[in-house]
Amino acid sequence: MSYERDNIRQMTAYQWGEQPETGDILKLNTNENPYPPSPAVQRALDTFTVDQLRRYPPPTADGLRHRLAELHEIRTDNIVITNGGDEALRLALTTFVAPGSAFGMLEPSYSLYPVLANIQDATIVRQALDESWDLPRDFAHQMNEAGANLCCIVNPHAPSGTLIDPDRIGQLASDLNGVLLVDEAYVDFVDPALRHDLVRLIDAFDNLLLLRTFSKGYSLAGLRLGYLLGAADLIDPILTKTRDSYNVNGISQRLGEAAIGDQAYAEETWRRVRTARRALRDRLLELGFGVGISQTNFLLAEVPLDAPKSAQEIYQALKEEGILVRYFSGSALEDKLRITVGTDRENERLTNALARLLGRL
Amino acid sequence: MSYERDNIRQMTAYQWGEQPETGDILKLNTNENPYPPSPAVQRALDTFTVDQLRRYPPPTADGLRHRLAELHEIRTDNIVITNGGDEALRLALTTFVAPGSAFGMLEPSYSLYPVLANIQDATIVRQALDESWDLPRDFAHQMNEAGANLCCIVNPHAPSGTLIDPDRIGQLASDLNGVLLVDEAYVDFVDPALRHDLVRLIDAFDNLLLLRTFSKGYSLAGLRLGYLLGAADLIDPILTKTRDSYNVNGISQRLGEAAIGDQAYAEETWRRVRTARRALRDRLLELGFGVGISQTNFLLAEVPLDAPKSAQEIYQALKEEGILVRYFSGSALEDKLRITVGTDRENERLTNALARLLGRL
Question: Tell me, what's the pLDDT at A86?
Fold first, then answer.
């Protein structure tokens, strides 16, 4: 006999990227930052004693919220801290999407969205991005027609790396009847020359949530730390009701504060990733891949039409020599590989392997 | 305009016990272990470098699952690790209780249960414990009649500290049509002479889940680490589908392994808590409180009928002098205080204050 709910039994589980725990693996598959966390984070860890773990952690992580309020020049009641960005996404579903009602998303995007919607037993309303990975013009209209009370979009976009500017995000928030969650997991890697900033929009739109994470920009994927920014009325039910009371452990709170306190270090890693991103893209273009401009820490590389191997075969061949990249099936992606930007040396090992696999050496 | 779901808007939030972050507070309100975690946990922390946080943690925390499988003499597929026991409870609701369907619980018990049920928009079916805090005879029948697909009971019971033996738990699992989750948050403090062990039941009952936590027994409330034990078919949908993919951070996994690896230390803290529990109960009885036998790390103390203050007034007066205990409103509890067992010295500070407040000094 099986006891789980019908929707849980029928759903397909999320497939996380491979996380090998040992070995000389070049890991360019789950968009980690190639540089270690700030030395300030190590110092915070060094001064932490386990006796501090005897008690429950601060339930709403107010120390970290204060730091983030200062950083973003907003109020603490615009912020809720989560156990990774994934929890923030789940909590948005829990809080705003009733089972049976509609949840809106674009395709392709983060493959966790439909999984979370299935867990919530929501109806998934999908619209495809156009050929240049841009929003369909009638997105808001279609979502409103379907009655979606929450739409998630990832911006900069995954897996393409493209960016929608603040004016268009504002227009979208204005046009949507429900909540717009903009998943900014990769926003730290946007070219600063663009002066891209959605935080300024949260005062103007009572239905806009921004998701941030420490996983990429602060090199802390292993710490599970994320947060949502939004109008206090959007944040409050998550902060006080739907979130597990002690969702973020004491060490993560402390290390998160240390990471936020060393912006100069984080920004330097972002700069280095952007520089490596340019060089990697150039090299991939030389090898015949189709690669758009990316504002993230990964590139989506389309395998040359004349390549002797398919994207899936290349993914597999790379894996066999200890290089992990991400391959997604699905019509718009089946001829492409998503490659995390590594250090120059890592990127060179990858492109050398690709050159060999394509017979271009 | 308010965007949250109707059930979220209407529900009452969980009230966590006060967690003062500073000051000379005697904290006997949230059942933390009075002793620090094992030195082995500190050593594990000391050897952790933040570079290990750059990558995602092992998604299913298999290192810790292996340790726990050895400890409990079960298989890893009988175990799922969670971000504290609270997450385990939430995941049981998410996995087994469809919105609108019935969730069963006893009253009084852990006040989080109805909150989680409200978040899931489940119908809460409550039955009152009898006057000796025992299960009503027709509990299973009533729950089956109501169609409850999940019932949660806490054993040893909170806030009374009473224990239901394995035979009766087995009978209950056998009688229930749905899943029985036994919240064993306090099981480490049960008198070993009782040879109480529910783990042996999970092979016999395909509908039995046991919840364990590191918060109390391993002095790691601040780490957020818990787990569920059960038949592989019950564990699997939680492990692979409803759980956030990286729900437990890398440091917590490592420190949890270290804590489990030093059973001798943990058992010594349990022994000391039991000894202090006996002494504290004796002293409270001397002061005229009604106090039953407790198998947990807290005591439920009924204020003497002739006391000059009510339980709520005593709670407040203690708080004013920097001693936190827990007061719950509600008919069966309004004349009682739940007091966490502290060190002998802490317990003495508490009982001296109580003697003064009752005019028995």
Answer: 97
Type of residue at B351: T
Q: What ipTM goes with this model?
A: 0.95
Would you tell me which residues 180-219 of chain A have a C-beta closer than 8 angstroms to some C-beta of chain B? 206-207, 215, 219
* Residues ≥6 apart with Cβ < 8 Å to B175: B140, B141, B144
Number of Cβ within 10 Å of residue B2's Cβ equals 12
Instruction: Identify the band that residue A281 occupies on the pLDDT scale cut at 50, 70 and 90.
Output: very high
A27 near B CB under 8 A:
yes
Do A83 and B244 make contact, defined as CB atoms within 8 angstroms? yes
- Average pLDDT (A342-361) is 95
Q: Which residues of B touch A94 (CB under 8 A)?
A: 8, 119
The full set of domain ranges for chain B reads: 6-36+264-358, 39-262
Question: Which among B273, B345, B335 has a CA at the least distance from the CA of B307?
Answer: B335
B250 vs A contacts (CB less than 8 Å): 222-223
Contact at 8 Å (CB) between B302 and B291? yes
Ordered strands of the A336-340 beta sheet:
A290-291, A298-302, A336-340
For residue A112, the model assigns a pLDDT of 95
**Are the C-beta atoms of residues A257 and A57 closer than 8 Å to each other?**
no
Distance from CA of A154 to the nearest CA of B (A): 18
At residue B38, the pLDDT reads: 98
Q: Is residue B183 a contact partner of residue B153, using CB atoms and an 8 Å limit?
A: yes
Of A115, A245, A252, the CB nearest to B249: A252
Residues in Cβ contact with B337 at an 8 Å cutoff, skipping those fewer than 6 apart: B300, B301, B303, B311, B314, B315, B325, B326, B327
A352 contact B CB<8A: no
B contacts of A248 (beta carbons < 8 Å): 224
Query: Which residues are registered as beta bridge partners of B208?
Result: B180
Residue A105, both tokens? 């998303």
Residue B18 pLDDT class (50, 70, 90 cuts): confident
pLDDT in tens, A198-246: 999 999 999 999 999 999 999 999 999 999 999 999 999 999 999 999 9
DSSP per-residue letters across B81-125: EESSHHHHHHHHHHHH--TTSEEEEEESS-THHHHHHHHTTPEEE
Q: Would you call B96 and A4 a contact, using CB atoms and an 8 Å cutoff?
A: yes
For A54, which of B19, B37, B90 is closest by C-beta distance? Answer: B37
pTM: 0.96
Architecture of the domain whose range is B6-36+264-358: Alpha-Beta Complex (3.90)
For residue range B47-100, what is the model confidence (pLDDT) as tens digits?
999 999 999 999 999 999 999 999 999 999 999 999 999 999 999 999 999 999
Q: Is B108 on the interface with A (CB under 8 A)?
A: no
Cβ distance of A19 and B50 shorter than 8 Å: no
User: Under CATH, which number does the domain B39-262 receive?
Assistant: 3.40.640.10
**Which of B1, B32, B42 is closest, CB to CB, to A50?**
B42
